[in-house]
Prior knowledge:
The chain has helices at residues 57-68, 92-107, 115-133, 139-146, 182-187, 195-213, 217-223, 230-233, 240-249, 273-285, and strands at 2-10, 19-34, 39-44, 76-81, 149-154, 159-163, 170-175, 254-257, 264-268, 292-296, 303-305, 332-333, 343-347. The protein is an alpha+beta fold. The protein has two domains: 2-164 and 299-347, Ribosomal Protein S5, domain 2, CATH 3.30.230; 170-296, Alpha-Beta Plaits (2-Layer Sandwich).
Amino acid sequence: MAVEVPYSIANVGPGFDRLGLCLDGRREWAAFAPGGRGLRIEVIGDSRIPRTPHRNVAALAFRWTARRLGAPTPDGRLTLVKRVRAGSGLGSSGASALAGALLGARWAGAPVSDPQVLVAILRGAAQGERGAAGTAHFDNVAASLFGGLVLIESDAPLRVHRIEPGSGFRIVVVTPVGRLATRVARRAIPDRIPRRDAIANLGFLGALLLGFVGRDLRTVGRALTDRIAEPYRAPLVPGCLEAIAAARAEGAWGAALAGSGPSVFALAPARYAPSVARAMAERFDRIRPGTRAWITGAGAGARIAPARDGPARTESPNRGVGSGGEEGVGRRWISRPASSKGLTSPVGRAVASAASPPPASTGGRRRSSAGRSPRSR
């Protein structure tokens, strides 16, 4: 049995521990083969991932979910193929934890489309995240499971809303050299936040959601601002504020720290995305060369994959969030893309809905006649 799980960006600006955005393209492949004695871990693609079951987030989620759904503790080999390194801010641990939880549900013979099973999968994945971050959180794992943009309304009871983000933008992801452990980044945030910052984030979060639902990408970019986590994490990522400013100057609607960092992401019109990527990477390279950048879109959710096929040799793009189609032969979506009507709720009860949104704005920061965007003053 095998699954493919996309990576994701947590927080998405002002939504600390409440928002997650699924990324298209790169996916983590994971498989479980029963047999032998004990649970054995094989990891391909990242030598720093723990190989012991009590420290590996996929193994923790796998065991927790299997037990929760009534299956015995499994013996066999759990294989992970990593395509994003741990400590990059792109949901690497979340993808592994979700993969483990999905495999645990499959091992238990539970139907992964059943709402109660989905809740168990999400809670199992969050337990895996606890092993990496020290606390259970759902933003990355829910985004990777359902695709698109997700809002965590509450943890208990667990209520998750999927928001169709549209396709009128590109996501520019820039990852500098080095890693930043989620535990370290979480400790940087104080226990008490100034009231003015909390109030400001409420406004940004509301505007961000309205912007996505209404396909108003200028509002989304303007609201891609955080006063709860980013001000305290930015000193841990030298060059990130300069990269964010460079992205906006090159035509991006907005930019922010990706999850706990050190990656930074920007939302930009497709025609500006390459120059935005170059500008952001240059800011990091001035400090330490070796920055990596990639351009993608919002992704669809996790999916079952035939174990006999093994991990895909190349990454092919999704057919588009909201298309309702399937990709590949012999694979099926765990959660089909939702309709394009604003807010939907795959887990729990929907609290909001919206009419069909207008077409996405394709503007962005206006450029000068020389083809360059005006620099911020």
